[in-house]
Write a structure and sequence with these properties.
Blueprint lengths: L2 H18 L13 H9 L18 H15 L2 H21 L2 H12 L5 E4 L15 E5 L2 E12 L6 E11 L2 E10 L5 E4 L12 E12 L3 E2 L5 H39 L3 H30 L8 H24 L6 H14 L3 H17 L3
Parallel strand pairs: 1-4
Antiparallel strand pairs: 2-3, 3-7, 4-5, 5-8, 6-7
Helix pairs in contact: 1-3, 3-4, 3-6, 3-7, 4-5, 4-6, 6-7, 6-8, 6-9, 7-8
């Protein structure tokens, strides 16, 4: 581990223990604390993977993943990790891969110091992120585009001052084509809506937005016209799934620490101690898998879809580990405490997202294996 990585991880560890862990009621808050946001900015934690030439610290995805694990394990709040990760990831990944130099110069330095934040707006009310049902449109008008539509479930939306909006810009052979646009909050016709109520991962905030004849310059398009569903939406899902494994590992270790404290207090027998050790070993294996996923993303930043099999394997192993922890707590009537309950709830809710998509991939992979023996 080089000196830069060591320094960043040390900084996030200190932040987790002195600013997050000392606030056990964070999981009850619906708004992200402004003082916590400012503290992250003051400690230079807002541009971990933004290149140095744009004011960031120039780290790789593996370092970002390590920081997420530490923040979840030592801080004990996945909502804080989600907000921090989203802020660090969205602009660096999307503008870094698809943005123009002018867009990077305009936004990345401000985001790296915490003065601005970018949120990606894809999902829509009643449609989710399914391309067939997305309706938000962008129509060319001279040197501008005019956007109309609604977006929902925007993580960090209330904190953002610029939104990367996916919109329909055409249709080819009955299939919609999408482009992505930077829409500042100050744009005429832009308004924030409550969005979908989220009952977990507090204090990470969510909202929706409404766009009514929002006129923006054509130069605000990110990437090539008509390519955004593949380069923004699909890529984002794969990258988020890959890096969320890191925060999940930290959260699981947080659970195990709480279980160990309760087991010590209640003097569980030899068999219980051995079961606890087995669970810790499984968590270590998940941690290695998570790091391997992040390192593979570093080697293949333009093709995150290749991570999907590893992401699926991680999720399957996580379910087994969750079951083992639940069984241990139940077998010895352990009482790990309220912090454990909140973290456990967040893990369970997070692991249930996109279950159908993973089931479809598992079925396809099973069929492929069967086909090899036909």
């Amino acid at each position: 581990m080089d000196q830069k990585t060591t320094s960043v991880i040390a900084g996030i560890t200190d932040f987790a223990t002195t600013c997050v862990a000392v606030q056990p009621d964070l999981h009850q808050q619906h708004d992200f604390p402004q003082d916590l946001w400012q503290e992250m900015a003051t400690r230079d934690l807002m541009g971990i993977i933004i290149p140095r030439e744009y004011g960031g610290r120039g780290c790789d995805f593996a370092t970002l993943a390590s920081c997420a694990t530490v923040l979840a394990e030592q801080g004990g709040n996945q909502g804080v990790v989600m907000t921090w990760m989203g802020h660090n990831l969205n602009a660096a990944y999307h503008l870094g891969n698809n943005g123009t130099e002018e867009q990077r110069q305009t936004w990345l330095p401000r985001i790296a110091c915490g003065d601005s934040s970018l949120t990606v707006a894809i999902s829509e009310p009643g449609a989710g992120a399914h391309p067939k049902h997305l309706k938000t449109s962008a129509i060319r008008d001279g040197d501008d585009y005019v956007l109309n539509g609604e977006k929902s479930y925007l993580t960090n939306g209330p904190l953002a001052d610029v939104f990367l909006v996916l919109a329909v810009t055409g249709e080819i052979d009955g299939r919609k084509s999408f482009s992505a646009f930077l829409v500042p909050r100050t744009t005429t016709g832009f308004s924030q809506t409550p969005g979908i109520e989220i009952d977990f991962l507090h204090p990470s905030p969510h909202c929706g937005i409404k766009l009514q004849d929002c006129r923006i310059p054509a130069t605000n398009m990110v990437g090539a016209e008509g390519s955004a569903f593949e380069t923004i939406s699909l890529a984002m899902r794969a990258v988020e799934d890959a890096l969320s494994t890191a925060s999940t590992v930290g959260a699981v270790r947080f659970l195990l620490n709480k279980v160990a404290a309760a087991a010590h207090k209640q003097s569980v027998p030899h068999e219980g101690v051995m079961a606890l050790g087995d669970l810790a070993g499984q968590a270590d294996l998940l941690a290695l898998t998570s790091q391997m996923i992040a390192q593979k993303l570093d080697r293949n930043p333009d093709d995150p879809q290749i991570l999907m099999p590893l992401n699926a394997g991680f999720r399957t192993s996580l379910r087994s580990l969750q079951t083992g922890i639940d069984d241990l707590v139940k077998a010895y009537s352990l009482e790990p405490g309220l912090a454990y309950d909140a973290a456990h709830r967040d893990i369970m809710k997070m692991s249930g997202i996109a279950t159908t998509a993973y089931q479809i991939r598992a079925l396809k992979r099973g069929k492929d294996l069967l086909a090899e023996h036909s």
